[in-house]
Write a structure and sequence with these properties.
single chain, alpha/beta, two-stranded antiparallel sheet, 10 helices, globular, SAM-dependent_MTases_sf, cytoplasm, EC 2.1.1.77, PCMT, methyltransferase
């Protein structure tokens, strides 16, 4: 009997299939959120989840997402981005432009000690699949980054065009906020920034060094600040070094900052945030992050679910301003099924 070797292409497909986004069924969620006026955790059951969670019917269909995802491989960064656009995962010119400006290959870790890592990373930096970056963490597949940014973008546009300044003048800020941002600037928090890739892409979207006139025909966003936080020292260093390769200007202009911090606690110093992206799965929705959202419509995109199991990606919008958590202060939208590495706790 002849035994055929398993091809590299098959290994890549099998690895990617394990992370395939799954379509979600209405009202089948168990999203843990904090109860009103209490710091303990509440696990909402499917019996009352319909009071909290809406099912996405306006965002990209999970079925369409599954068809386009995992196929957007490229030989170059541009080819990868063009395929994401052809698959309608990247839809907006703002997201496409930012993806084109940031070369994903600068944010992958090449471990030359094993052949398999050379095959999957060094030879395929633009593969549409998650890649390990060390310390038990991964960089998400490009289509998941694109999907998250397309969910965040409408809120950034809203704050950039609203009569109310992006800085949220007249709204309550975090008690520990230094409010160092200039009036009208956007504030974005990237929790679990890993190798720094999405932090950099977000930075290109709100680059302070580019004036509105310099943005061409693309509708401009307000300039702003992106804060990438990571709890693992080695990943903080990795993220900073990766950004320095070709995106040092984002540091020089104070558009991007990378800080060691506990993702569960967020970064209250610079709150409130117009958008928060969480790149790792939380077993429960972190109250601290929810309360750091801008009260006039700040949103958070976050995967929630058990460690090692299937999770759901949610978009959480803060719609009211209260000093303590109230269930009615947030609009929770279920997007699609995902699988992420866990959001690490810390003693910080």
């Amino acid at each position: 009997m002849r035994v055929f070797p398993i091809s590299k292409q098959f290994r890549v497909f099998a690895f990617a299939f394990a992370f395939l986004p799954l379509p979600i069924a209405p009202f089948s969620y168990n999203i843990p959120v904090p109860p009103a006026c209490n710091n303990s955790k509440l696990f909402l059951s499917s019996n009352n989840i319909r009071n909290i969670v809406r099912v996405s019917n306006t965002s990209a269909s999970p079925f369409k997402m599954s068809l386009g995802a995992w196929r957007c491989h490229g030989a170059t960064n541009r080819e990868m981005v063009e395929k994401l656009a052809e698959a309608r995962i990247i839809k907006s010119p703002q997201v496409k432009e930012a993806f084109l400006k940031v070369d994903r290959s600068n944010f992958l870790v090449v471990d030359t000690s094993t052949t398999s890592r050379r095959d999957t990373v060094a030879e395929a930096p633009y593969m549409d699949a998650p890649q390990p970056i060390g310390c038990g963490q991964t960089i998400s597949a490009p289509h998941m980054h694109a999907y998250a940014l397309e969910e965040i973008l409408p809120t950034l546009i809203k704050f950039s065009t609203s009569d109310d300044s992006a800085a949220g003048e007249g709204t309550r800020t975090s008690p520990t906020s230094t409010n160092n941002n200039k009036e009208g600037e956007l504030r974005i928090l990237d929790v679990g920034c890993g190798s720094g890739y999405l932090t950099t892409v977000l930075g290109r979207m709100v680059d302070r060094s580019i004036t509105n006139k310099g943005r061409g025909p693309i509708p401009p966003l307000h300039p702003g600040s992106v804060y990438g936080i990571e709890v693992v020292d080695a990943l903080v260093t990795l993220s900073r070094n990766n950004i320095l390769k070709e995106n040092k200007d984002l540091f020089d202009s104070d558009t991007v900052t990378v800080i060691k911090a506990d993702g569960w606690k967020g970064l209250p110093k610079y709150a409130p945030y117009h958008a928060i992206h969480v790149g790792a799965a939380a077993e429960t929705c972190p109250m601290d992050l929810m309360m750091q959202l801008h009260p006039n419509g700040g949103i958070m995109v976050i995967p929630v679910g058990p460690n090692g199991g299937m999770q759901d990606l949610y978009r959480i919008e803060r719609i009211r301003d209260n000093e303590v958590y109230e269930e009615t202060d947030f609009d929770v939208l279920a997007l699609l099924g995902v699988r992420y590495v866990p959001l690490v706790h810390s003693d910080l």
